[in-house]
Amino acid sequence: MGIVHRRDPVQPVAPVDGRGQRPPDAGGDHPGGEDGLAVVGTALAHRYDGPSGPVPVLVDVTFTVPRDGYAALVGPSGAGKTTLLSLIGGLEPVQSGTLEVGGQDVAALEGDGLAAYRRSTVGFIFQNFGLLEALTAAENVELAATLAGDRAAERQRRTAELLDAVGMSPRAAHRPGALSGGERQRVAIARALVNSPRLILADEPTGNLDADTSDEVMHLLESLHRDRGCTLMLVTHDRTLAARAAQQLVLDRGRITSVPTPAGRSSDAG
Amino acid sequence: MTWADTVRFAARSVLRRPGRAALTVVAVTLAAALFTAMLTMAATAQGRVLDQLAKGGPLAGIQVAAAAPDPSQAGVDNPTRGAPKPIDQAALDRIARLRGVDVVLPIVTAQALVAWPGHGATAGNGVGPTGSGSVVFDQMVGVDLGHLADFPVTLSSGRFPTPGSETEVDVTPVLLARYGITGTRTRSVLGAQIVLGAPRGFRSSDGTPVFRSRWTKAVIVGVVTQQAGSGGVLASFGLVQAAHRWTAAGDPTVDTDADRSPYAGLFVIARGLDSVPSVRAAIEAVGYSTSAPENLIATVERYVHVVEIVLTGIGVIALAIASLGIMNAMLAAVRERRREIGILKAVGARDRDVLRSFLIEAAVMGAVGGLIGTVLGLALARLVAAIVDGYLTSQGLAGVHVSTPYLLGIATVVGATVLAVVAGAVPARRAAALPAREAVEL
């Protein structure tokens, strides 16, 4: 299964303008013409309003994922993994601390700029796939490009290439309800890639899949990371899957407790 | 996202929930239908009532009699007249020049002996041409048939005489009643031939008063109710004027009733309903008695306007309820689609993309409902009018005809769309304000 590279003259990378596009001279040095983006969080704190007052979810979280990095966020349920991923993906506002993606302050983004960041800088893969039931697989993939205002012919070409890359061309006209869990996740991955993001965020991408399908999806994500050179961050409960990452960020009750090295040797965080 | 893409996306969202969309559209359809039907019927009723008051002529029409005004009757719709006073061409020209006068149409009348071969009049006198049967005395009314739309004349059946025709006439139900022909039977007279006689009085060589008539054959082509002049036969101006001249040239000592005024009356059309009082006053100042249903029209207009307000109010309330239905349906849709909206935002939709999508959904439902409703409403109005028309014509009265109010239709469709967008604004804003985190289960 090959991965198609998009070589648009203007690639989305920080700093982004209103449409999430970067200056032409900000090209990377990856063989594919693209680079990942470094993610740097410093003293991040986050809380939600609960019925009995604010509930801290992240407390003084500091981490760095290098450009082209592959990091796994692990930890028990309620540790703050998805919240941290949501902060990085621009789905949640940064309440406290600083968060830089490719040198860009995510907290400073708002309105159209934030939408452009979500659209073009980040590719988000949801645990429950996040596909729109009213649309076919191809239309779901095309949606992100449609939101970017791309011309129909161009976005349809990219959609076809990506569906082919994830092995879903035969199922392009099917709606999500007619697809298996693995197939849905493949479509979701294709959608996340349609605007050539340089940071892929996957929230428990294998959480709803069986072991064999999980392995297929992980191979797909890792090949994307490897071939496209984009930074990959994923949330997982599965220590085995996490061990495949170059870097593990272990969260417990909102704090990073350790930052294991790629070789598996942990060191205390912070 | 471009507008075209947004429209496509919104259309898919509507079609995704066909049941709810259909119910919402039905609500708008019923409201628009009710609104259109109410307004169309109100307008038709108003037109019908005022038409009846104006006897088919223009509302701003004033009848001028060949008589002096009675000063004590100033401002009365149908005043008693003063002494006879001929209307000649000079008087007509003078009235035509008055301020506020739009058109002056002369009316000529002539005494007529009506003979209808094969029909026995209930009140004939037995005179007439050979084989004509009994003859009734009546009057012919002559007007410029090219301006019939300006006269207080309403066609019940058949058609009007061809302008300039010397052989075609219309008759009134009153004349037919004298022959015992009433109700729907009046239609049976179309195509029948009658003989019209204009009497002239003179004295024989021994001084005996004698009448001789000038007879002409005519075909009945229509039945009309007319208030242009007093008479049971409506014919072309030339035909009646010739009969009038024949009679007027007789010996006035023999036929003392012969009308020798060149014109029996005038029908003056003012430049608007507001000008009627001043024009009437000016004509009376010239020296002629006038009549116009201005006070009655003003009173009825007020009542009809009240009815119109009530009917419009019912329609508006229906549309408002439909708007609430749209708002409710869309608020429910926003609640159901929180996650979908979150996903849209997570993959890069801007607030305005979501806002537009929901507004377009509302607009589509409003426009579709408005369009179907308008067509249904017009059909309903026509159905009601057809029933009323059937009843009126069965009573020998002029029917009701509903014209297609295109402007009302367009206004209803546009109004329903705008109302839907307004109703959808709150849900759309709510949807647009949803955070992207709705996409993830935290």
List keywords for this structure.
heterodimer, A: 270 residues, alpha/beta, Rossmann fold, disordered N terminus, B: alpha+beta, elongated
Overall domain count of chain A: 1
- Uncertain segments of chain B are none
Category from helices, strands and their pairing of chain B: alpha+beta
- Structural Rg of chain A: 18 Å
N-to-C CA distance of chain A = 41 Å
Describe this structure in words.
The complex is a heterodimer of chains A (270) and B (442). Chain A has 270 residues and is of the alpha/beta class. Chain A has one domain: Rossmann fold (3-Layer(aba) Sandwich), CATH 3.40.50.300. Chain A has helices at 81-89, 111-121, 137-147, 152-165, 181-193, 211-228, 239-243; strands at residues 39-50, 53-65, 70-74, 96-101, 104-105, 122-125, 199-203, 231-236, 247-252, 255-258. In chain A, the strands form 2 sheets. Chain A has a 6-stranded mixed β-sheet, with helices on both faces. Helices cover 48% and strands 18% of the residues of chain B. Chain B contains 10 helices and 10 strands. Chain B has helices spanning 3-16, 18-53, 89-96, 173-178, 237-248, 276-286, 294-336, 338-346, 351-394, 406-433, and strands spanning 61-65, 101-115, 135-143, 153-158, 168-171, 193-203, 209-226, 233-236, 265-270, 290-291. Chain B has a 6-stranded mixed beta barrel. In chain B, helix 1 (3-16) packs across helix 9, helix 2 (18-53) packs across helix 9 (351-394) and helix 9 runs antiparallel to helix 10. The longest helix of chain B is centred in the C-terminal third of the chain and has 44 residues, at 351-394. The radius of gyration of chain B is 32 Å and the shape is elongated. The two termini of chain B are 28 Å apart. The relative contact order of chain B is 0.19. Classes of the chains: A alpha/beta (270), B alpha+beta (442). Chain A binds chain B through residues 20, 48, 82-83, 86, 89-92, 111-112, 115-116, 118-120, 124, 126-128, 130-135, 143-144, 146-149, 191, 195, 203, and chain B through 1-2, 5, 9, 12-13, 15-16, 340, 342-351, 353, 435-437, 439-442.
